[in-house]
Structure formats: structure tokens, C-alpha cells
Amino acid sequence: MSPRSARLARLSRSVTFSACHRLHSKSLSDEENLQLFGKCNNPNGHGHNYKGGKLISILAPGIDPVSGMVMNLTDLKEYMQAAIMEPLDHKNLDKDVPYFSEVVSTTENVAVFIWDSLQKLLPQGILYKVEVHETEQNVVVYKGEEAIVK
């Protein structure tokens, strides 16, 4: 196979950000929130060091035959800075990030927020997945899918 043949590769990059939040749904009573979210419903909130072995993964049309890259890592780092670090790092998700004023700040919704933010910056169609590690045991993977509502 010639070195000029199109080859697919996935590129992953991770960042770590610290943020606090309170799991609380405006659709539920205080008692229902406490029952559902337990200690994570603490009125003063709690924090995490969110990280990922592969926080985001890029799937490009192919490895560029000239640069030898899927994407320039310097560009990817800048996109992640703008989409993840600036809006989320050292923030109270519920109070400092407008998105979470109406959406419960679960790790699932943090992954969706990151996906949507990156989609606005990255070239069309190359974002493959967002993987958010809330703890070593709790990981959410989001690939842009939407549920089918019946």
C-alpha cells in the first residue's frame, strides 16, 4: 500500500478541569431532589476534577498526506481551551454557565455541553465522541446521538 493511500485515524486529547455543582431539578420538590440525588443535592454544592483519558476524539476524513496529521494538535488545544476550559474550569456550573440554569448539571449534560461547544469550533463532521470522567468510577461517553422520542 502506498504511503499516499487514505488512512483513517482517531486523534484524542484530554484536559482536566475543576468545577462545582449541585444536582437539583427545578421540576422536583426539595424532598424529591434529596431522594433522587442524595448528598449530591447539598445546597452548597460539591466539586469534581473532571478529566478524561480521551476527553474528546476526532475522526478526520484521513491522515493528511502532506502534514501527516489528522488535525494540528495546536489547533485542537485552542478549540478545547475555548469550548471547555474557559467556560467550565473553576466555575460553579449552575451559577456561572448559562446552559446549566435550565439543565441539571449531571455529567451526562456536561458531556452534551462540551459536544455542542466543540461542534461550533471544529471543522464539520470530525468530532467522534466526548468522554467525561467525573470520577475514576463514573464516566460518560457522548457521540452526539439524540434519543428517539415516541
UniProtKB/TrEMBL annotation:
This is 6-pyruvoyl tetrahydrobiopterin synthase. Belongs to the PTPS family. GO terms for cellular component: mitochondrion. Its EC number is 4.2.3.12. It comes from the Eukaryota. Involved in the biosynthesis of tetrahydrobiopterin, an essential cofactor of aromatic amino acid hydroxylases. Catalyzes the transformation of 7,8-dihydroneopterin triphosphate into 6-pyruvoyl tetrahydropterin. Pathway: Cofactor biosynthesis; tetrahydrobiopterin biosynthesis; tetrahydrobiopterin from 7,8-dihydroneopterin triphosphate: step 1/3. GO terms for molecular function: 6-pyruvoyltetrahydropterin synthase activity; metal ion binding. Keywords: Lyase, Metal-binding, Tetrahydrobiopterin biosynthesis, Zinc. CDD domains: PTPS. It comes from Loxia curvirostra. SUPFAM superfamilies: Tetrahydrobiopterin biosynthesis enzymes-like. The keyword Zinc applies. GO terms for biological process: tetrahydrobiopterin biosynthetic process. The keyword Isomerase does not apply. Its cofactor is Zn(2+). It is an enzyme of class 4 (lyase).
